[in-house]
Write a structure and sequence with these properties.
Layout (H helix, E strand, L loop, with lengths): L19 H15 L11 H8 L3 H13 L3 E3 L5 E3 L10 E2 L13 H15 L2 H4 L9 H15 L7 E4 L2 H12 L5 E4 L5 H9 L3 E4 L2 E2 L2 E2 L1 H11 L3 E4 L13 H14 L3 E4 L21 E6 L11 E4 L3 H12 L7 H13 L1 H24 L11 E5 L6 H10 L2 E2 L1 E2 L15 E5 L6 H16 L2 H8 L1
Parallel strand pairs: 3-14, 5-6, 5-9, 9-10, 10-11
Antiparallel strand pairs: 1-2, 4-12, 7-8, 11-12, 13-16, 15-16
Helix pairs in contact: 1-3, 2-3, 4-12, 6-12, 7-8, 7-11, 9-10, 13-15, 14-16
Pfam family, one: Aminotran_1_2
Protein name: PLP-dependent aminotransferase family protein
GO molecular function, one term: transaminase activity
């Protein structure tokens, strides 16, 4: 039994709450963040705390060492251990909510960026980089787009490609071009939040179509098409956001067949295809006349480029799409479009993407090891989907994680509609937005400990 004279900052240690040394370090971090412990406060000697907790000295020593590694404590020789003055990053949010590529392994990104911009400036007149351009990209930009899409489609006619200022702009323009106010858009029950945002702004309604472990169910899609006469169907078949599922080849063929039978338009948003391990061919290869295909550089290279390529085979639809795009985004920024083109054509993009791919896979292995049975990821891509224990709800866990300095995304953020009244009890974690791998590891460990506690236990630790 623990001593009643335990420090106020230390909650009852949970039997199944993970390693004891991390529980102690986590409690220290919460106490510092809440002001229960202040800079200069003296901590109990390690031997005394070990005796009070009925733990061996090594466990408490490891806890203090972990707290020092987090810049929470500082040793003052024979005078003991004290709460350290806060550093800038002590209470900084550890962002596991934003899907961005991780820092590329083995790649000097700063040097790559400087060299790329230097080549652009040497080969292009400055005034051309600072003036208006026709929407849809230059001939060089479209040829770069054809090169970017070649792994998915083989050789392409670059005239069928439109260069856009990001995938979100492409989705919005496709909704405007292919649908009218009041139309239904079909999507999986959990889907990219940007789709819902655009549909709401434009007065379209999203209807959820049942999905299973392979993705959208073809029979349910056909029923929904005949019932709702949708303006379009939205698919994200590779490393699906948020569930990280990659749709199998047979499912893609079945959905393509439904699209042909029902004469419906599909928007295939495929930002992660080039990061995936041997993904099946896109749906757009199976029903080329039915599918508009989007591939963005933001998820494979860097969000700052704000460049996406859209493959639209039908020339009339392409013109309607360009008209819609010009209504709110005249063009991709010429400087970043030129940099993207330079990187794709000189091979830099492949080098950068391979670095991102290596780092992403290292981080997935880390997440799988730390989160054990709760991890549901493909081992590549930028995110994982975590099914929660029954005692947590997604929004409840998101609030608790926020108090621990961790940002996560609850399932509700992706919901397009519940099927048969059933909602999903899960969260998405993004593995790329934390620059430092050690900080990511510490955050995942804290999240794992949080998942192991029941909400009331966590509340007792922070009140």
């Amino acid at each position: 039994m623990q001593d009643e004279s335990l420090p106020l900052w230390l909650p009852q240690l949970a039997r199944h709450g993970g390693p004891r040394f991390l529980q102690i370090a986590d409690a220290l971090q919460v106490a510092v963040a809440n002001g229960l412990l202040k800079p200069g406060d003296r901590l109990p000697p390690q031997r005394r705390l070990a005796a009070q907790l009925e733990l061996d000295l090594t466990t408490v020593t490891r806890a203090y060492d972990e707290a020092r590694r987090r810049h929470l404590l500082e040793g003052r020789g024979a005078r003991g251990t004290y709460v350290a003055a806060p550093k800038v990053d002590l209470t900084a949010i550890l962002d596991l909510s934003m899907n961005t590529p991780p820092p590329p392994a083995g790649v000097d990104f700063d040097d790559m960026l400087k060299q790329g911009l230097s080549r652009v400036l040497m080969s292009t007149e400055a005034e051309l980089l600072m003036t208006y351009h026709l929407g849809g990209g230059s001939d060089s930009d479209r040829k770069a787009g054809a090169r970017w899409l070649e792994p998915m489609f083989g050789p392409l006619d670059s005239r069928q490609i439109v260069v856009c200022p990001g995938a979100q702009a492409a989705i919005a323009a496709l909704i405007l071009a292919l649908t009218k106010p009041g139309d239904v858009l079909l999507a999986e029950p959990a889907s990219y939040p940007g789709l819902r945002a655009a549909a709401t702004q434009f007065g379209r309604r999203i209807v959820a179509v049942e999905a299973d472990k392979h993705g959208m169910v073809p029979g349910m899609l056909e029923q929904a098409c005949r019932r709702h006469k949708p303006g379009l169907v939205y698919l994200n078949p590779t490393l699906h956001n948020p569930t990280a599922v990659t749709m199998a080849a047979h499912r893609r063929k079945e959905l393509a067949s439904v699209a042909k039978r029902c004469q419906m338009r599909i928007v295939e948003d495929d930002p992660y295809w080039l990061l995936a391990e041997a993904p099946p061919p896109p749906v757009a290869t199976l029903a080329p006349e039915q599918v508009c295909y989007i591939s963005t550089l933001s998820k494979c290279l860097t969000p700052g480029l704000r460049v996406a390529f859209v493959l639209i085979r039908d020339s009339h639809e392409r013109e309607r799409f360009l008209d819609a795009l010009r209504s709110f985004a005249l063009m991709a920024a010429p400087m970043t479009a030129a940099l993207a083109t330079q990187w794709i054509l000189d091979g830099t993009a492949d080098e950068l993407m391979e670095g991102v791919r290596r780092e992403a896979r290292l981080r997935h292995r880390m997440a799988r090891d730390i989160l054990a049975g709760r991890y549901s990821g493909a081992g590549d891509g930028l995110h994982a989907w975590l099914e929660l224990p029954s005692y947590w709800t997604p929004s409840q866990l998101a609030r608790a994680a926020d108090r621990e300095g961790i940002a996560i995304t609850p399932a509700e953020a992706f919901a397009t509609g519940a099927i048969n009244g059933v909602s999903v009890n899960a969260i998405r974690i993004s593995l790329g937005s934390v620059k430092d791998r050690e900080r990511l590891q510490a955050g995942l460990q804290r999240l794992s400990h949080l998942l192991a506690r029941r909400p009331e236990s966590f509340s007792a630790a922070v009140v």
